[in-house]
Amino acid sequence: MGNVEQMFHSFHVNKEHRDYLRFFWFKDNDPMRPVIQYHMNVHLFGNISSPAIATLGLRMITTENQSTYGEDVKDFILHFYVDDGLTSQPDAATAISLIKRTRDMLATKNINFHKIVSNDKDVMIALPSEVRAKDLQCLDFSQDTLPSQQSLRIQWSLQANTFTFKVDLKDNPFSLRGVLATINSIYDPIGIIAPVTIEGKCILKGLMSEMPKGREMASIGWDDPLPTEYLSRWFTFHLI
């Protein structure tokens, strides 16, 4: 598992487009000086276009360099989740080769793939300490226990090579607003706990599609109590 360092800032904004990223700030970052106009020269976090542009940039790098660094590197990068790369390889030698070639490919455009972690100590030993995740940089791999890591809300125990997923659901009321808020609060972009979350989505689908007690669904407000026939299913889902 690894991460692209400052991914959005790695891609420059064309000069003719910089007027779209103007902002006002104190001259020389000094609150005692006048407020002046600045332009962003790189794409920034929070701008709606940044993820698409950065992802397109990564794809262009793979297209230009796949013949040099390999089809497997291209496939790995194309499956990044924004700036996070996660993969599983059959052995340490294959993983080391893939990581090194990925770093080399991205470095052709001054992009740094770092914060690398693996459950295999041989992989970690083969990499420079500065490209490993922070809490792995100073470990003695001959005796230290590998710490857990987190990515996309998944807790990965490197030592046991197991995944855990922790969810803290708020006690929302049993209403359309409460059900929707609860389901949408579970962040699971790669679907690792889909066998659990699918039940909540099925409950919501039933609530939105059925006609409870002969009334139009539109007559039920977002904060009105919902039909009691769904209550036991909802409580069971909530306690999983």
Q: Could you characterize the architecture of this molecule?
A:
- There is one protein chain.
- The chain is an alpha+beta fold and 240 residues long.
- Among the domains are: 2-6 and 48-139, no CATH class; 176-239, no CATH class.
- It has seven helices and eight strands, in the order βββααβαβαβββααα.
- Strands 4-1-5 form a three-stranded antiparallel beta sheet. The protein has a three-stranded antiparallel beta sheet with strand order 6-7-8, with no helix packed on it. A two-stranded antiparallel sheet has the order 2-3.
- A hairpin with a 4-residue loop joins β7 and β8.
- α2 crosses α3 and α6 (194-209) runs antiparallel to α7 (231-239).
- Mean pLDDT is 87; it is low at 211-217.
- InterPro entries: DNA/RNA_pol_sf (IPR043502), Retrotrans_Pao (IPR008042).
Keywords:
single chain, 240 residues, alpha+beta, 3-stranded antiparallel sheet, 7 helices
In short:
The protein has 240 residues and is of the alpha+beta class.
What is the rounded Rg?
Answer: 24 Å
Helix/strand/pairing category:
alpha+beta
Quote the distance from N terminus to C terminus.
28 Å
Helical percentage: 25-40%
Continuous helix count: 7
C-alpha geometry:
globular
Strand content: 5-15%
Count the E strands: 8
Question: What are the low-pLDDT stretches, counting only 5+ consecutive residues below 50?
Answer: 211-217
Mean pLDDT value? 87
Profile the largest sheet.
Answer: 3 strands, antiparallel
Task: Note the run of SSEs as H and E.
Answer: EEEHHEHEHEEEHHH
What strand line-up does the widest sheet have? 4-1-5
